[in-house]
Specification:
Structural class: alpha/beta
CATH architecture of the largest domain: 2-Layer Sandwich
CATH class of the largest domain: Alpha Beta
Shape: globular
CATH superfamily of the largest domain: ATPase, nucleotide binding domain
Largest sheet: 5 strands, mixed
Radius of gyration: 20 Å
CATH topology of the largest domain: Nucleotidyltransferase, domain 5
Distance between the termini: 31 Å
Strand content: 15-25%
Number of domains: 2
Order of helices and strands: EEEHEHEHEEEHHHHEHEH
Strand order of the largest sheet: 3-2-1-4-5
Length: 339
Amino acid sequence: MSVTILAIESSCDDTSAAVIKDGILLSNIIAGQAIHELYGGVVPELASRAHQENIVPVVDAALKKAGVLPSEISAIAFTRGPGLLGSLMVGVSFAKGFAIAGNIPLIEVNHLNGHILSHFISEPDKDVRHPAFPHLSLLVSGGHTMIVKVNSHFDVEVLGRTIDDAAGEAFDKCAKVMSLPYPGGPVIDKLAKEGNAHAFTFAKPRIPDLGFSFSGLKTSFLYFLRDEIAKDPDFIEKEKNNLCASLQNTIIEILSEKILKAVNNTGIKTITLSGGVSANSGLRAHLTKLAEDNGLDMFLPEIRFTTDNAAMIGIAGYFKYLNKDFADLSIIPDADLRI
């Protein structure tokens, strides 16, 4: 019997719905929220309101693109957390209503597990290679930076995580200091291509084991700009490309050093990259070279699966369905949900 999963993702400012049938992605619709660009960051209240407006048309579009009727859905999967509470509530409430109306199972998904499992999404008429177990996952996003040992689809062990800011936060906050538009990460990535990655040196906090810290880098960057602007008010404009290249290179070096240390500690040579920052072209190129130099099997996600999307929630939901791992209607969103 076929298993068709409708998935909902609403953890932050993207409303997304996807349909996965027997592990194959049939549709993945995403509605963004440009309003946040005016404020230089996501405004939680505005995000939740936009989700309420977007979720019905997004789900309708996902079902139509997949050619699936609501009555054909086997279960509905949703992001329980982590994320913005108001945004999560919209997705959870919709999923509960859909489950009740269709008398179908409800499946909760951890947003971070979704990112990790994005490498198991299959598509029609496409030969997609999936990572073997166990493997190491470098999960890098705006709110999370961690290295996870993945023993199976849902047996995971966090080997190290950031103790303060995430890598994505460092990109966005440093971009804001330079008056670059939000989101800053993609802008820095673009400008870095025209700069010298070794033009400037910034602090790399030394955190023991496999932990991360990016607040010290952010502070180092801020103080460096303060001192240089005092000497030349036009410093940022003159050196923007070099600043972006040097900042990006520092973050990439921090991430690369830690994942290589994890490989040496565990002996595991299969690596996956996931999360919003995994779209960064510099990081992708550097990790590809790192894999070649160290005999690693590196899996980079498709760009469309790097940002928040329901396809990753759907594939996680599919594997949970196979395990009969269902949630009941008492489930509530958890903004601080951990793995």
